[in-house]
Amino acid sequence: MTQEKRPMKILLAAPRGFCAGVDRAIQIVEQAIAKFGTPVYVRHEIVHNRHVVERLERIGAVFVEELAEAPVDRPVVFSAHGVPKSVPAEAARRDMIFIDATCPLVSKVHVEAQRHYAAGMEIVLIGHAGHPEVVGTLGQLPEGVITLIETVDDAASFEPKDPSRIAFVTQTTLSVDDTAEIVSTLQKRFPQIEAPHKEDICYATTNRQAAVKAMAEPCDVVLVIGSETSSNSKRLVEVAIRAGAKQAALVEDASAVDWSMLADAETVGVTAGASAPEQLVEDLIAAISERFETSVEELRVTDENVVFKLPRLVA
């Protein structure tokens, strides 16, 4: 006689998974392979997800960390996170075919930083040191021009040259609440600081965090599908805990779940970072359903219909 499964309610956050910038970046690599044949080189992981990277490798993408690792006679794609200006300049100098898959919302931050610099403003970038997006934004302007602020403490101790001539920009994948705290600290200290015309944290990050906030409280456990290198995915774990989930964990896929976390759980929340394929969500729900008698309820906070055009070279 088969053992009866224990009931488990799954709350499924929506929106979740791929955003328009990730979708566009993946399409750019696929189209480049279709147009130029294989191999097509990609500088840095196109998006921060191992499953996406491995699938693109299977169809002919070769991932490298630096441009020097790519031969001059093959096309190269720059990742969705953006690159310092020196990278396309070097590709042009080597006479390479290059395609920039930088998310348009990251490019918007680059343009803002350049505009502030041209106006003679001192620029503050709120973000995480070493993240490729931050490296790319810092690299839009001469070294030392932009000051990186990671924490409220950094904001409290920052000393500008002229408090009346400063502006801030932010990484697009930050925690909305943490960033608001940092911005508030800067604005209290420097009332004249210039903010972005439209918030830099992207719509997808904001929406995914809002969906997790809406579902977290009744959840015994929230599982966030995403890679350890994915900033927006890691923020979802933090948001879930802050919003009232008893436990939350980042998992690469269903095989990475610590099932002991669900031992006493009655409700599990499931979401996915902006670079995680929906297939991984389906696989996780299937894995939970193998172990429990599941009911699935989607909790949708908004609909997304953003689409970004592909660059002309691969359109």
Concise structural overview:
By secondary structure, the chain is an alpha/beta fold. The chain folds into 3 domains: 6-18 and 203-300, 4-hydroxy-3-methylbut-2-enyl diphosphate reductase, catalytic domain (Cobalt-precorrin-4 Transmethylase, domain 1, 3-Layer(aba) Sandwich), CATH 3.40.1010.20; 20-100, Rossmann fold (3-Layer(aba) Sandwich), CATH 3.40.50.11270; 105-189, 3-Layer(aba) Sandwich (Cobalt-precorrin-4 Transmethylase, domain 1). The protein has helices at residues 20-36, 50-58, 86-93, 104-118, 132-138, 152-157, 176-189, 203-216, 231-242, 278-291, and strands at residues 6-14, 40-43, 61-64, 76-78, 98-100, 122-126, 146-149, 166-170, 221-225, 247-251, 267-272, 292-300.
List the helices and strands and how they pair.
Layout: E1 6-14, H1 20-36, E2 40-43, H2 50-58, E3 61-64, E4 76-78, H3 86-93, E5 98-100, H4 104-118, E6 122-126, H5 132-138, E7 146-149, H6 152-157, E8 166-170, H7 176-189, H8 203-216, E9 221-225, H9 231-242, E10 247-251, E11 267-272, H10 278-291, E12 292-300
Parallel strand pairs: 1-11, 1-12, 2-3, 2-4, 4-5, 6-7, 6-8, 9-10, 9-11
Structure in words:
Helix 5 links the parallel strand 6 (122-126) and strand 7 (146-149). The mean pLDDT is 96. The protein has helices at residues 20-36, 50-58, 86-93, 104-118, 132-138, 152-157, 176-189, 203-216, 231-242, 278-291; strands at residues 6-14, 40-43, 61-64, 76-78, 98-100, 122-126, 146-149, 166-170, 221-225, 247-251, 267-272, 292-300. Helix 8 (203-216) runs parallel beside helix 9. The chain folds into three domains: 6-18 and 203-300, 4-hydroxy-3-methylbut-2-enyl diphosphate reductase, catalytic domain (Cobalt-precorrin-4 Transmethylase, domain 1), CATH 3.40.1010.20; 20-100, Rossmann fold (3-Layer(aba) Sandwich); 105-189, 3-Layer(aba) Sandwich (Cobalt-precorrin-4 Transmethylase, domain 1). It starts with 5 loop residues before the first strand and ends in a 15-residue tail after the last strand. The chain contains ten helices and twelve strands. A five-stranded parallel beta sheet has the order 10-9-11-1-12, with helices on both faces. The longest helix has 17 residues, at 20-36.
